[in-house]
Write a sequence for this structure.
């Protein structure tokens, strides 16, 4: 038998190693004892990986590289499909994993379920908890009978908390079904707060849950449920949380929460609201489902006839696909879907390409680069965070990077995420990282031509369409849309954001922006150019377009088109910025101002500057301990920062409290306020208004009415602004390439 196996291996080496390279084949109809030829494929990705490793152990990779062709079908993974350093190609000879052209190969972190296994509702006790209509439409499935016993569990997650793996989820026809909730649309307002609960943000770690009055008597129908969760914004309109209900008191009409929210709980604002989740009685519309974790019975009201439906249940908690310290590998044209954690994870290595993939229906992030962090501090916290880096989990990454701003997350370098579609994810779409902030060494990692949408099924604020950190990375030609929260959330230096199409975000949140950077003056050199931002914001909320938050410095906004931005706090908003340049942009129909600047140390944050500028406080840590702005490379790269921490009045004022060198110049502004800049705080709110062209008329677009905002060569703009450079509106957004065949 062993001789036969060796003989098969020699055959594949002889016949598969053409001058152009080596080829192996995978098919759901194959067998892992096969040699991996086109005629005799293996059945699993693991078997193909082993064949590649055996070949590499005895041979150099030929110039044509090694290609593993994966035929259409579903490849269920009981554990992560891992490629590591032993699976690497070389600079001149790549190892490529790809789906056969024209076939859909799905790498699945769950299992497919035959629709015939669903049956009519049987339990009379359950029927009594439903309306007659619901009882007639709900089906049931005994998960234990088909070997599914790990249901996961609901956990608290949200602002300042760790990202947790999802519990078991249900997907039908490639869409996530809705865990039984109330209301089916919209939110429930938080009523009178009797006890806001402990406030970890203020150092109160007594773990006291809030008590408040409910405003909807529907809560009184839920007393038979013991695992109800409320998800919403309980204090600030950006700080989402999911908190378990400890008790519903129908006499006093009160809810007591089991644990606190970071800021406490309050009502009174239209964004102080929640939805209630995981309630059997609220399984009342098509598309909702509920799992009884004691019996293992899953209840579903299908959207349509379930007979021919594609039904999948998530199982795998680790990343579905993981590239760990591998290099020169191409992973392309796959669908990666249905897991409880990350879709595709990359750590370390160099020159890998993930291209043409669809990543969807995962519990946390779609594509995630670099390490996460495990929190060790035992409470919800902000300033008291402690933790350690971990691989293949997200955890409290945001807390760790806030505490350790120069953290190198080991994302590797020169990686490309190209022409991928990422959607229906739980905690953000793509997380891009790479480079070293302490040494300002660029990562040169790129996300390009990707479509990212519907990326906040679970975590909301801070988990964007694309997050970015490190140094010298790029987000190019992407389309990001359909979120109540932000599109891009940034950390780090010298990133470039260009040719993107970003729309319909920040739709239902408060104090949130389309693009965000803040609270670290050393995060300089970010360039936002040639992007199309449109139809963003909510005029009833505190929204911004480009948000240069607390003490942001060195951001350039050049050559963008902003259209129909319903951002009451400006197309660009800054809290005490330095060296912010907004130039050569086209701003069309802004709801209010083009720029809003608040010198916040003299306005809403007045008197609290010593909390960030004082000895051993936040900015001293970030500018002189984590790195040193007065020593190379920072002193050479950013001489503008040299006097940032100079004292004006000991213990009271520092140079960084006063805005410097901010300019709005050579922009075309159609509509909006007569004065495009609103500054607060008198002489400390510096934002120069230079040589902008304002009009209420079409300045000479190719087709203003139909949204073609290319300027004609005879446009009035070029006469009014002699230095105005053409804005490449026609190049913004997605494009067709070998991975993305069409744009829809």
């Amino acid at each position: 038998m062993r001789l036969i196996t060796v003989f098969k291996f020699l055959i594949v080496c002889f016949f598969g190693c053409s001058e152009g390279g080596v080829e192996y084949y995978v098919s759901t109809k194959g067998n892992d004892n096969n040699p991996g030829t086109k005629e005799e494929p293996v059945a699993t990705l693991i078997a193909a990986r082993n064949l590649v490793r055996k070949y590499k152990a005895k041979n150099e990779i030929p110039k044509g590289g090694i290609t593993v062709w994966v035929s259409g079908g579903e490849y269920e993974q009981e554990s992560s499909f891992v490629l590591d350093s032993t699976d690497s190609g070389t600079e001149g000879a790549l190892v490529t994993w790809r789906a056969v052209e024209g076939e859909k190969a799905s790498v699945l972190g769950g299992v497919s379920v035959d629709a015939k296994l669903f049956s009519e509702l049987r339990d009379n006790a359950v029927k009594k908890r439903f309306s007659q209509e619901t009882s007639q439409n709900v089906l049931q499935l005994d998960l234990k009978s088909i070997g599914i016993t790990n249901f996961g569990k609901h956990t608290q997650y949200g602002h300042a908390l760790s990202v947790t793996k999802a519990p078991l989820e249900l997907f039908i026809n490639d869409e996530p079904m809705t865990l039984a909730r109330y209301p089916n649309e919209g939110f429930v307002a938080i009523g009178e707060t009797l006890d806001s609960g402990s406030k970890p943000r203020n150092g109160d770690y007594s773990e006291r849950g809030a008590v408040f009055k409910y405003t909807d008597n529907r809560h009184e129908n839920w007393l038979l449920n013991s695992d109800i969760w409320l998800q919403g914004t309980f204090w600030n309109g950006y700080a989402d949380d999911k908190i378990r209900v400890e008790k519903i008191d129908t006499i006093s009409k009160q809810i007591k929460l089991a644990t606190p929210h970071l800021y406490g709980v309050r009502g009174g604002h239209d964004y102080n609201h929640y939805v209630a989740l995981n309630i059997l009685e609220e399984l009342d519309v098509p598309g909702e489902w509920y799992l009884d974790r004691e019996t293992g019975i899953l209840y579903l009201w299908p959207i349509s006839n379930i007979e021919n439906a594609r039904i999948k249940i998530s199982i795998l908690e680790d990343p579905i696909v993981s590239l760990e310290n591998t290099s020169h590998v191409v992973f392309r044209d796959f669908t990666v879907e249905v897991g409880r954690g990350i879709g595709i994870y990359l750590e370390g290595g160099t020159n890998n390409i993930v291209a043409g993939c669809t990543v969807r229906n995962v519990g946390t992030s779609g594509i995630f680069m670099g390490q996460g962090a495990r929190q060790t501090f035992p409470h919800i916290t902000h300033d008291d965070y402690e933790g350690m880096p971990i691989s293949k989990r997200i955890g409290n990454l945001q807390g760790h990077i806030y505490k350790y701003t120069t953290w190198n997350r080991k994302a590797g370098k020169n990686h490309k995420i190209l022409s991928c579609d990422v959607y229906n994810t739980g905690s953000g779409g793509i997380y891009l990282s790479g480079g070293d902030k302490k040494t300002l060494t660029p990562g040169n990692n790129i996300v390009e031509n990707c479509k990212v949408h519907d990326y906040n099924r679970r975590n909301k604020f801070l988990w964007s369409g694309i997050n970015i950190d490190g140094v010298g990375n790029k987000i190019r030609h992407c389309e990001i849309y359909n979120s109540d929260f932000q599109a891009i959330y940034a950390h780090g230096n010298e990133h470039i954001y260009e040719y993107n199409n970003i729309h319909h975000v920040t739709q239902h949140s408060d104090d949130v922006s389309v693009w965000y950077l803040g609270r670290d003056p050393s995060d300089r050199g970010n360039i936002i150019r040639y992007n199309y931002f449109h139809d963003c914001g909510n005029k009833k909320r505190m929204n911004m377009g480009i948000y240069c938050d607390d003490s942001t410095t060195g951001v350039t906004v050049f050559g963008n088109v902003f259209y129909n931005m319903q951002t009451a706090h400006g197309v660009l908003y800054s809290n005490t910025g330095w060296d912010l340049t907004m130039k050569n942009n086209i701003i069309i129909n802004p709801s209010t101002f083009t720029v809003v600047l608040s010198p916040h140390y003299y306005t809403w944050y007045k008197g609290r500057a010593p909390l960030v500028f004082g000895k051993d406080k936040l900015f001293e840590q970030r500018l002189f301990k984590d790195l040193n702005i007065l020593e190379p490379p920072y002193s050479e790269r950013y001489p503008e920062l040299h006097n940032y921490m100079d004292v004006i009045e000991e213990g009271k004022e520092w140079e960084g409290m006063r805005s410097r060198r901010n300019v709005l110049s050579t922009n075309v502004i159609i509509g909006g306020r007569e004065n495009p800049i609103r500054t607060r705080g008198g002489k400390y709110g510096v934002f120069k208004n230079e040589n902008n062209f304002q009009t209420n008329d079409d300045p000479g677009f190719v087709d203003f009415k139909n949204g073609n905002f290319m300027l004609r060569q005879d446009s009035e703009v070029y006469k009014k602004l002699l230095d105005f450079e053409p804005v490449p509106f026609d190049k913004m957004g997605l494009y067709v390439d070998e991975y993305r065949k069409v744009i829809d």
